[in-house]
Amino acid sequence: QVQLVESGGGLVQxxxxxxxxxxxxxxxxxxxxxxWFRQAPGKEREFVAxxxxxxxxxxYAGSVKGRSxxxxxxxxxxxxxxxxxxxxxxxxxxxxxxxxxxxxxATMSDASMDYWxxxxxxxxxx
Length: 126
What we know:
The chain is an all-beta fold. 0% of the residues lie in helices and 47% in strands. The chain has no helices and 11 strands. The chain has strands at residues 4-7, 10-13, 18-24, 33-39, 46-51, 58-60, 68-73, 78-83, 92-99, 115-116, 120-125. The strands form 2 sheets. Strands 2, 4, 5, 6, 9, 10 and 11 form a 7-stranded mixed sheet that branches. The protein has a 4-stranded antiparallel sheet with strand order 1-3-8-7, with no helix packed on it. β5 (46-51) and β6 form a beta hairpin. The mean pLDDT is 96.
């Protein structure tokens, strides 16, 4: 059973930055694409960013594009999400997830993910 553990969330002022991390317990981390999703209070979970197995390919939701960078370190079995210029509407629980479907990362969605972390809360104060 794959375990994904997110960290790095917290309270930050609008305009600030945070770096989220997600560590995987498995040794085959480099074989699968990874994604970040978020769920704001009272809203459905939404896609944020995706990264290919190698880390070369990335894809972002329009709401975070230009402000966020997804990256991965396969040697550490860890995926990151650097978020800059944070806004109040970025407040949410952020989840990392693993996609074993081998579909293009631009098609990544909530339904295509195989394993999920428990999430880390990001609160942006305005």
